[in-house]
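Throughout our pipeline, every protein is held as a single compact record rather than as scattered files. The record that follows is passed on verbatim for readers who wish to inspect the format:
___
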Amino acid sequence: MAQVNGHCDAQFQSVRDAFSKHILSGEEHGGSLAVNIDGRDVISLWGGYADAARTQPWNEDTIVNIWANTKIVCALAMLKLVDRGLVSLNDRVAKFWPEFAANGKEKIEIRHLLSHSSGVAGWDHPMTLEAMCDIESSTAELAKQAPWWEPGTASGYHCWTYGHLIGEVIRRVTGVRLKEFVANELCEPVGADLQIGIKEKDWGRVAELVPVPGLTDFPAWAPNSIPERVFNPLANPSFANESIWRQAELGSVNGHGNAQACTRLLSTWTLAGHGSDFVSKDTASLIFEEQVRGVDLFNGMYLRMGCGAMSLRGDGDTAVDQWLPAGRVCQWGGWGGSKHVMDLDRRLTFSYVMNKMRTEGPVTPLVRELLKETYKALGIEI
């Protein structure tokens, strides 16, 4: 029988009730939830099953592929360089990576990479999983291409390429690969059990993904359209089971962690200037420095994009405003339903990850319920 473990402040009992309801009923397979406020974990829960057969419990140290939430980690790595004065958001990418200037990309800036607005959102030629995981070669291919739209004029979700682009800049600046930089400079200093890729010794605690039917029934995109070109290769949950995937450095999609680890890292930014000196308050505020606002060329949603790989709460006009409170609040999610929210005004960090992959988006009914109950406990209706 499924169980729920962990702790939850009495003030947030309704959040625990919602999480437990879905886990114990079997509606949710397995997952973890963490909410940090003012540096303290007011909620830290986990439960359900880590395998499709429901024989292995989801334990405190269970981790899972977090898909696009990896982009948040990748963006924070770049912002760490900004915090150290090694990079500026207005620096041209070619300053550090001269080859990138080819084919009209000489004016693309760091802020364009961070906000999905560089126009280098995919590969011009057909891509396979194996070729994409050859980071050196596939990154060099991106340097040769022309942008697909005028950089900085619109966002277009950089599904696969976000980590390649930012990772290469980090390597050129520091001499260290993205995976190593994230481990040594972000995760280990704050004790976050989070990795890009996954060490083979940890494979035994990786939760098995459980996709719902229809998860890969993608729209019939128009030939040569931005969405069709971005989703190259077509995503498949089975990728995450491949050793080549787990060993690769895919800063866009193959991060592994749990809600507790994600909250541990993200809260150091949410609390910048308010109890955390991991980065400066000014650097953390760059996440909310709007770069583009409008309909995303890939997903068709109206978004405000800042410099943290996360979409920003708007004034009632963006796709996320109906389920986030007003203020300096940003969010991003991973394929299947995971969600992370950083609320700087309330010094709150929310993370939810799971292994059952759903089709609803940009927020699943369960996550919406968890967010609603979390903020309701603080006297805020959303």
